[in-house]
Structures
1.
Amino acid sequence: MIAAYPLTTLATLAIVLLTFIFSFRAGKSRASSGVSAPAMAGDDTFERATRVHMNTLEQMVLFVPVLWIFAMLVSDLFAGIAAVVWLVGRVMYSQAYMTDPSKRTAGFMLGILALLITFVWSIVMVVMGMMAG
Amino acid sequence: MIAAYPLTTLATLAIVLLTFIFSFRAGKSRASSGVSAPAMAGDDTFERATRVHMNTLEQMVLFVPVLWIFAMLVSDLFAGIAAVVWLVGRVMYSQAYMTDPSKRTAGFMLGILALLITFVWSIVMVVMGMMAG
Amino acid sequence: MIAAYPLTTLATLAIVLLTFIFSFRAGKSRASSGVSAPAMAGDDTFERATRVHMNTLEQMVLFVPVLWIFAMLVSDLFAGIAAVVWLVGRVMYSQAYMTDPSKRTAGFMLGILALLITFVWSIVMVVMGMMAG
């Protein structure tokens, strides 16, 4: 079944990889900052890296199911494009957050845009499908 | 494939939407409370909104995969009903948490009930399927 | 569709169950420690139990989609084996973290190993599939 969705499959793996990289950076920041587990605060760089990771995790948990629903109801190609927009947004978000948290909005909104477009389009497709029978 | 599961698809989108609304509220509480990123504490309303969001995220990550397994092994209709119970529980949980965190148990348990019923029923179906074939 | 993947289905349910058990323990630690919601810090056992839960959640959100991609591209049996490795790693991680957080690395790395092997193998399969077709 998955063979019909190569771009969505690759996109999912890329989303997992980016989130993994963010978690890895947060782990490294913990080590270099000297904040011992289980503490989650006490060093600004560690806290920023942790927030980028957690916020990306929060977003991917919403985006991945919607992306697959969208791929199946619309197309693998459009899902791949939406995922690229999402990934670019997340990289921008991360870069901004690490240098100046107040500038993180643009990247955040790009990810939300990818989520909302795939979400609304999917809802329309499901409802049209149910009405058609 | 997804066309055979319209209610589970709609339910998944509704779960994503509710979690998104909770994350949006947490973000707004951060702005109105004046707690600057990356700090996660310092204002009671912001902390409650954050906890509702995070707890819902924690639960949806468990519930969504189980819901789809259940839909495929049992039925789309029953999965839709379980999701409605879950969603009602989460809205109750949120309302209670924002007004008085000590009253959040009833809504929490409703969500857990939906999770446990779909979980146990799915296990039974998988094991019966393996024994039959 | 899911009937073709009984081991991956059972593995997913086991991953959900383990994460649920960790969340349950964190909730119980909150109660016995006397840390009132929405506070997330103030008692070492509660903080450790919370970190084990959250870290497992962070890992399962990456592992479950990769596991299903892997099962569909490689085999249900190998996905089941990878999931057992992941689960053992997570139990080791939990045991170590609760007694001495500095010893949590071995269990953590076992989970990461299961993730990386299924991840890389899946990438190879998708790319080979795209080149072939």
Note: The CA atoms of residues 63 and 115 of chain B lie 6 Å apart.
2.
Amino acid sequence: MKKYIIGVDIGGTHTKVALLDLSGHILHKTDFLTKNYKSERLIKAVFLAVESIIEKKNIRKRDILGLGIGLPGLVDFKKGLVFCLTNIPGWKNVALKRILENKIGLPVFVDNDVKIMAMGELRFGAGKGYKNIICMTLGTGVGGAVIIDGNLYRGSSLVAGEIGHIPINEAGPSCDCGSSGCLEAYVGREYFLNNARKRLRNAPSAAVMKMTKGDISLLTPEILREAAVKGDRFSKEMWREMGLHIGNALAGVVNLLNPQIIIIGGGMAGAGEVLFGSIRKAVAKKSMRLPGRAVKIVRARLGNDAGVIGAAEIVKDNIGVRP
Amino acid sequence: MKKYIIGVDIGGTHTKVALLDLSGHILHKTDFLTKNYKSERLIKAVFLAVESIIEKKNIRKRDILGLGIGLPGLVDFKKGLVFCLTNIPGWKNVALKRILENKIGLPVFVDNDVKIMAMGELRFGAGKGYKNIICMTLGTGVGGAVIIDGNLYRGSSLVAGEIGHIPINEAGPSCDCGSSGCLEAYVGREYFLNNARKRLRNAPSAAVMKMTKGDISLLTPEILREAAVKGDRFSKEMWREMGLHIGNALAGVVNLLNPQIIIIGGGMAGAGEVLFGSIRKAVAKKSMRLPGRAVKIVRARLGNDAGVIGAAEIVKDNIGVRP
């Protein structure tokens, strides 16, 4: 009898709900705007999306092994408790697992989105075949996950993986976390854009000014990416510098953990080769010979589907289905 | 029938050879100056020390489970091959395991001294009862070892743990490893002393000048420790600054790996509270709240015996005796 899993990816912008088979294939997918549903209503929206998929695909609930959910924030994955979410207001200590299990009558498992992305990449993406992996996401924040010996390493208080808060300078810009000099304070979305805006005020780039119609408050990473692709020197330099900061932080991670592969995803990883080339160059320059040569640095492969695919994997892990 | 293990600790200065029981107790110990024996002759000296212990304690060779050796350098612990040793000339690709096994007729296991110190501290020292541990040694170099889930984590090319080569600044002093800004380039023995000498030339400290008889080329960490204990402001500041650099590097490690405990040993850890207080303060300031509060930072407990105790542990691990 064919069995299924539901994967849910609650993002700052979109919430995706998918039906998958046990091999990580997406059989059906739907999504809606997260901001349209506040707090408890978002839970109901997920519930309705799941019920609608079950009906549409005409499958029996008892053939669904469970539902996995990834969220961008601090999550107690053991208790299925959401402490708070980044960029999604109205969530504070929500017992998501219990609430959804009562509604839906299926086992529910909850985890942080970067940990879930890492599980997806490990099993079906760029991490397939590797055992010691560093995952990193570049977006509003800089997220991370450490996979040791094929398992997600969670640390002693379940908060391991904060690559974004490795200090890259002893004296540096202050960071949202309360410290200073953190990688995120150089390359997090807003820090990166504010830095670009400051420079544009002093020396405007014609290409970027045209694309923002002269209003640099409208600047986005997508504009800087597009301008870089078109050869804009200023934009290319911005991405190169971002790569240098990331590479300097990763050199320390490479020397400490000697990973086989570093997988980088998230919206800002879309900048592509101008960014990745610079990251690789900095890691090669700053890390020790042996671990520096051993490590591959690649872009995440599952893209937008990483969230729902990874979410399905945590269901398998939790109910003991062999990967 | 009582069983034994031989632990050997080859250091830059002393080589220690000890007979231990399976509970990590040292039953007999002997040592000699490493520099008195060059390369292959050092192997013979170890062999003779072992034979002498066996005779002195009147035990049968077949009751000795094996011999473990720790060395300060790059070691292939699987093959028992020593690539090269720090501060001990004349060792290049020595098949130590094979040579000693042929001589001595016992199973021999070889590993890097910091990894071995970490195993000793994990089983019988400051790491007892913990599972996720960072070990660090402060000496000529800054060594490290990562213990994950109670096991030594070796990394994908067996070179994980290089805490000394985490960059703490993007632009910084050049390091012996070929990179720049590494922690070791701030706090390794010679870097630390040269820095102190430079400052003493500009502003001599009466206490230190007296202890070096006015010749600061004779400055040692021991002198700076002693002067700090006596209240010398300059020496205290040197140790505080060292602690700040170490703490800044460890803050990144704490955020990335969320360890339960960080154990710091090695000659320069002898500076004690002036150093450790400063390390703890910097980690508290620079790391995130949850992992920063979770981690303990303590001095290694086994001291001079860590090497032989840890060496005995790797024998137990390799021949499958339960720890």
Note: The longest helix of chain B spans residues 233-257.
